[in-house]
Amino acid sequence: MMRKSVFVLVLSLILALAVTSRSDQILDGMEAYLRGDYAEALNLLRPFAERGEADAQFSLGSMYYEGHGVRKDYVEAVRWFRKAAEQGDADAQFNLGVAYNEAEGVLMNHAEAAQWYHKAAEQGHTEAQYNLGVRYKKGKGVQQNPREAVRWWLKAAEQNHAEAQFNLGIASVLGEGILQSTSAAVDWFYKSGMNFLQDGEREKALMAYDRINFLNPGHFLGEKLKEALYP
Fold it and tell me: Which ranges constitute the DSSP H helices of 86-201?
């Protein structure tokens, strides 16, 4: 399964800044962004972005990407994301990967997309780990390698990424990049189904249940998932 890539916004950054006690003005700018006061956010964040603050650069890139407080401009969004990404900002690195994958603000370049996903994935970015796994599965921008696909999906799955868990279920059924095992497949489909439900994606949870029921009708994990689907 391939999840549509989305650009992450700034809520996680606000939480991080609150913990690390970074600049109050940057925090104020991000809070203004979230409450929809984009003019104030732009006024507060731009000076810090221009001084090289990665968090502010990422937020400014998000504003240009969404057209919040400024004219929507993917080229400008990518410019600010790149500045933050080059300083090691994982969300910005992920967004550059998406930009190269979707040809938004840059020419489509699957090798570049894979490179930026890899940088973010190495920092534990869950969506980047999942997307990188898909690229290794398909050989898109990287050499096709089912074992590498599984390796990155496992990392994402450990962070409860439902689609990565579902893909591990399929890989376990087929024995692609991982030992063939029906019992492991059932376990992964169950985990993915429960996480799909938690994410509000009931149709995908039903797909996971159907896979379990096909592989092992009446299995207790299938019954547990069914109970969650039909409380």
Answer: 90-102, 110-122, 126-138, 146-157, 162-174, 182-198
